[in-house]
Amino acid sequence: MTALDDEQLGQLLSNRLHEETHGMSAPSGLTETLHRRNNRRTWGLRIAGAVPVVAAVALAASLSLSPGTESTPNAGGDTAPETLTVNLVSERTTTALGNLSDFVRHTRSDFKDGKGKATMTNESWVDTKTGRERTDETELASNSRTTVFKTGNGNDAIVIDHQKKKWWNDQIAALPAGVEVTVTTGPNGERIETPTGKKAVGPLIDPKELQDALAGGTLTLVGEESLDGRATVHLRWVPVPGSTTDIWVDADTYLPVRKTSAGPKASDEINFEWLPRTPENLAKVEGAAPADYKKLPCTPLPIAGKDCGLGN
Q: How many other CB atoms are found less than 10 A from the CB of residue 210?
């Protein structure tokens, strides 16, 4: 493998993170600054909690990678385990991010408030080759559940409100990754996202942020760890003061296994599963609303006075 200098490493890792960043919807009820992902949906969930949620960063990777601890000859001719460094692990993770078309990516995300109380769960399946995806979100306080199917045809999506037993066609917006938004609650309890025009910091890493982390020692290699019986390599960095992000990658493939983010107001844990593109797994990203659900004639936009029958 050709070694990358710091600038190249920063650029590659930034590009891959930005390509594969998928954010989560946050609860309404207060104004919070969140980080916006590529292709993040703009439909508002009926979430009653008042807890900010840190946007999730999803990483994609290739299965055909060398082991995480290759053996190299030492001075005596014997082989010795390779010494892992933060630069080496970052470079291999960056290389792993280069193949995005081999998997159905399955993630399970759990969110908690600042007191450690569970607030929301999110489960998604993404066909990394076609862009089709399914996301199920459950707000635990009200047990309300919403399903979104992204069809892979541009921004087209189907949104299903299981509590109201209604569904509609929608469009998934495509704000650039790293765009900061302010989240507020509208008069009818809907979620409103307003871009601030500022670049977001935190889970999204641009080349300068990565270089600052490497140079300042805030991006660190924690070490090799067993995670639920699986050999992993653990990286940690501090995206903003008071917050910590940890990522565990498989020691052989450098596929992400788990990511956690923790701050004073909220925390999240995302667990990754990389599935082969079998008919059974691809079926996860296909679906439709139940036959007894009512289709709305338009996309509800309560803030604009466009209910479309959602509240009836």
A: 22
